[in-house]
Amino acid sequence: MLYTWHMDNHLQSIVALLKETTLFSALDDQSLQVLASKCQPITYQRGDRLFEPGDLTQGLFILESGQAALVDQKNLGERLLLERADFAGEEAAFLQPRRAYALVIKEPSQLLAISNEDVQELVTAHPEVQKNLRILAQSRKMSLRLPMPWLIKDEYIHIMTRKHPFFLLMSSLLPILAFALFFLLVLFLSKFLTPFHSILLLIGGFILSGLWLAWNINNWANDFYIITNKRMVWVERVSGLYDSRQEAPLSTLLSVGTRKTRLGSLVGYADLMVRTFVGEIRFSRIKHAAEIGKLIEAHWQNVKTSTLHDENQAMLTALKMKLAVENEDTTPLIEGEETARSPVNLIPPAREASFFEWLFADFLKVRYQVGGTIIYRKHWFILLRQTWLPLLIFLTALALLGAVVTYNLILFSRSASLVIYGFTFLASFLWLLYQYVDWRNDTFQLTLDQVIDVDRKPLGKELRRAAPLENILSIEYERRGIFALLFNFGTVYITVGATQLTFDYVYNPSEVQQDIFARIGAHLEEKRLYNLNEERERVSEWFKAYHQTTHSEPDLGDASTKPIQKTQPYENVDEKW
């Protein structure tokens, strides 16, 4: 009976683990019971390698405890850490005969092994599991292939996707059609052009169309929607101009929904809308939107359960420390141990940037990020409006100067022409440089806890206004004028008390608004955790005071100075009674 009870208890623990695994979120309790009975527990030690790239595929593994790491085909190092309820070996579900990566054990771990036959039986009986596995496996491949330097410690990617490939096809067709029309135009004008000029035009058009095509493909490839174990992230990059990352903590999630158009139903894409306390993050035009939404909900529930468990454990640890039940961390350090435990700064000191590196860093970017600070500039249309006149004079002076040097233009003496055109060239260049630096120095900054408006003139005064995120009452934006609508720029108004900060002429003001909302959400989450720690500390102090009160010795007054009276013991207990 005891053995049977132990087996049932172990089976239930496996079922509980499988419920935490997002991969099996579509299975009911009965299916999980059947799957749990087929899992074989195995134990590995630190440094063990379960399989290598190219090994025969033998089963799917679920990590029950410990930690492991995936290593890519080139064996370049750890690319993805696996923790409890993570899986490895998805090749077994897709009938792939060889492993694509290596699995290395980082600390003593317990795993559950599911054989190839049982995996195939599972995905045949439950196609939704294979669909989930395909989504998660594709996410893993993308995360292994693409570097994400902004991920923090102990953060790993759970789901990662892009816009539907249909939009890659559509954006690729535009430059191809443009080149086809240009080819027909050159073919029509070939009667009036020499063969050399026709070929030259075709080569130029081909190069421009190729660059346009490469730019569109790169922009599509750099647009990601990511769910990590800590937050939801939308990463968007427009090559050379725009770098955006909107995010919200998972704890702020309220609901997940989908929206599909007629074209989306035909092609197979939809919008996934994730609502949070501070706004909405939209995963636009993605494939498998409904399935990804269910995976996000399952992952969200697991994170909530894990967070509650961690908070309870933190409270228990705080109480034990206050009551001095555990004094492991309070033991004094032995000589030389303090140095070993102290953090080591592995980041080398930054090299001081040169003048030109400072001047042309992020040359025309209207949004970029430095550390935890998002920096916005005015739209490049404003830069063009400020610099068109000095740029025109600069180019004209350069052309005239070149004509005088090559003896192609003689209006008055050559020396006087060189002086006049040279001075005009230098003056227009300095004017152009001044306007660029003036545009570059006007920045709007969004830090972790405040918004900052910086207006700095070159070699002149600086005006800096800042406001804490927690004091923001409302955020609005507007795009005024045909050019603002055409080039998608406008002004964001941030109301703080009786004053108002403005981010003028920023690109895509709606996303700037979302950035601020996301930062407010992250800031509120940080305050919530801080208040939670304060509450934990206060409660533990109460328990400590209660413990000291209930376990303190009674006050004996001057009993120590009083003589102890001797009494005779009862010799016959029954007689006394």
Could you characterize the architecture of this molecule?
- Helix content is 46%, strand content 24%.
- It is an alpha+beta fold and 577 residues long.
- Among the domains are: 1-139, Jelly Rolls, CATH 2.60.120; 166-221; 363-519, Roll (PH-domain like), CATH 2.30.29.
- Strand 3 (60-71) and strand 4 (78-82) form a beta hairpin.
- The protein is globular and about 105 Å long.
- Residues 1-7, 325-353 and 558-577 have low confidence and may be disordered.
Sheet of most strands: 6 strands, antiparallel
Terminus-to-terminus distance: 50 Å
% residues in beta strands: 15-25%
> Could you name the CATH homologous superfamily of the domain at 363-519?
Pleckstrin-homology domain (PH domain)/Phosphotyrosine-binding domain (PTB)
Low-confidence stretches: 1-7, 325-353, 558-577
CATH architecture of the domain at 363-519: Roll
Backbone CA Rg: 34 Å
Number of strands: 21
Sum up the overall morphology in one term: globular
Overall average residue pLDDT: 78
Within the CATH hierarchy, at the fold level, what is the topology of the domain at 363-519? PH-domain like
Helical segment count? 15
